[in-house]
Amino acid sequence: METLVVDGYEVPVLTANTVVVGTGSAGYCAADRLAMFGQTDVIMVSDKIRAGASRNAGSDKQTYYKLTLSGAEPDSVRAMAETLFSGGAMDGDIALAEAAWSARAFFHLVESGVPFPHGRSGEFIGYKTDHDPRQRATSVGPFTSKSMTESLERRVRDLHKIPVLDACRVVDLVVDEGRVVGLLCLKTDVRDNSDESRFLLLRCTNLVYATGGPAGMYADAVYPHGQWGANGAPLRAGVRGKNLTEWQFGLASTKPRWNVSGTYMQVVPRFVSTDADGADEREFLDEAIEDYGRLVSLVFLKGYQWPFDIRKARSGSSLVDLLVYRETVLRGRRVFLDFRSNPRGRWDPSALTPEAYDYLDRAGVVGLGESTPIERLQHMNRPAYEFYLGRNPGVDLEKDLLEVAVCAQHNNGGLWVDQWWQSNLEGLFPVGEAAGAHGVYRPGGAALNSGQVGATRAATYIAERRRAEPASDEEFRAAAQPVVSEALSLLWGATERAETMPDTTDALLREATELMSSHAGVVRSRQSIAEALARVKDWLDAYPTTAAAAADSRRSVNRLFLIRDILSSQYVYLSAMADYLDHGGRSRGSVLYTDPDGGLPLASEDGRELDLPEVFRFTLEDGLSDVIQEAGWSEDGLSFAWRPVRPIPEDDEFFENVWRHYREDKNVY
């Protein structure tokens, strides 16, 4: 089958056993592993090969989490699984798989060329990261995931010669009786005046979905430009969502987008806010944190307590995030980090907590005397200073203020997967951030390990169990025709409307993402969620008959389908937040849910509450950490189910039994 004609429109069809969507570290890992395991009938597609979080995101020292591989400190697969499982709302079989194959995934990266550091004797050294009781973390610097992506890409392109198709925006999954049989993409590089089809169909037995998290949902996001995600299509196709309420938020610069973690906070910059025009400068942290020693200590702690953590919001370092949120969202002001001068105009390291003082003393900062934050940054981590010089737009921290906000950084939830990363839709394997593989909390860097393990396990299952031919011509035609017809109807209607009315895509994208940041970001309430949900539902219902996109603008047509995907995701995610509250959910993880009966952050350890807006009243969640929320979208509407977490399996560890079963089916079932 080379083409499919629908409503007089001819759409080309490509066929392969497996299609991998996404060219980040998880997508390239899946394609590489498939070829290694003997399944070479693979096509990769991407909306933009050089975009995406894996290639363009990072932090002061981007972490990769794995089993301990150095030193005398004991570790085990079970111990690592217990750490992952203890994050709450985490399935134990996934935790065990991520722990069991972490070393395998790590050494595959090493052999692929990722320069993880080891000592003279060959031990791969580690350090502790957040929510990590052992020294399991490692790093190759700010761009760990970029190095992973480039190393795996070389194997896919040069060694395996797997074709990679660029400029393919996900439109919809093609489904037949509970199984995925293909994918419809928009060719974003095709103009209306071209004879080439705007659409492309891919027919397959398996679809590995490595599209990243739904980054396009929020305006205040540290996801790089060009990373949008595509969760809306599988959700519309009936793929279940899992832990959709669980996000990770943290302080990040907005231009360019980058986490201001690690050294950026440990050198204790000055926080200032201005009005929209950059005037009326204020050191706003002073309003809530009177004691100088407490102020500089809390800023320091943001370095390695970077994600917002509601457990640290009462009197700990996450109070800083809330004060930034008050300035930007509630007061409509802009917030900047000033590395040129010290908080309150002075630097007194003796006022720091012993923990902070000892760290900076060992780093040689205390010996600098009356220094500025930029002097401390250049002394401790000059590459962190140079990083901003080389970005677009460039920022010279010696001269310029750095604008920041509390930004969405990672979705711990996502699409439902089993222990082999197959979704409830047969043949669909979400991997990387698209997969809902995490719980409420996770160790820093666990997402990179999860992406590599998930991709490896999905490829293993496909190679062993899913080598069947794709759907027949007749089956595929019947399943694909209505999908293509709906896409054509949306496109033709929107381009026709654009002839008599303004293009709606840019304005709606901006309004929808700003709504999520203001109503369903790091601070949420029952009222704000209800307001956002009603607005998004109206937009989504009216979209097929109101959207307008200029036919001669590739960007506008691209955004026509992108916005539909974002609105679909927002609708399901907001509904999940409302359902979470209906089931007694309260503040947990990286989110504050307003509770009128709760307490406010404290002014000091004496229990006195700060004079803060009532939206900051909260109560910690207690009782939902051992259950998981699942979401389903069908013709009958949205539904939610709550179930106990799957426990960590007690596998038979007797060698002869495992070996016998392995000889039969390699224990892939």
What features would you describe in this structure?
The chain is α+β, with helices and mostly antiparallel strands and 669 residues long. Among the domains are: 248-408, no CATH class; 498-644, Fumarate reductase/succinate dehydrogenase flavoprotein-like, C-terminal domain (Methane Monooxygenase Hydroxylase, Chain G, domain 1). Helices cover 36% and strands 17% of the residues. It has 18 helices and 21 strands. Strands 1, 2, 3, 6, 7, 8, 9 and 17 form an eight-stranded mixed sheet that branches. Strands 12-11-15-14-13 form a five-stranded antiparallel sheet. A four-stranded antiparallel sheet has the order 16-10-20-21. A hairpin with a 2-residue loop joins strand 11 (247-254) and strand 12. Helix 3 crosses helix 4 (92-100). The chain is globular and about 75 Å long. The mean pLDDT is 96.
Task: Name its key features.
669 residues; Methane Monooxygenase Hydroxylase, Chain G, domain 1; 5-stranded antiparallel sheet; 18 helices
Judged by helices, strands and strand pairing, the structural class is: alpha+beta
* Average of the residue pLDDT scores: 96
Shape: globular
Strand content range:
15-25%
Total DSSP E strands: 21
The biggest beta sheet, please?
8 strands, mixed
Using only C-alpha atoms, the radius of gyration works out to: 25 Å
How much helix is in the residues?
25-40%
Number of helices: 18
Spans where pLDDT lies below 50 across 5 or more residues: none
Head-to-tail CA distance between termini? 32 Å
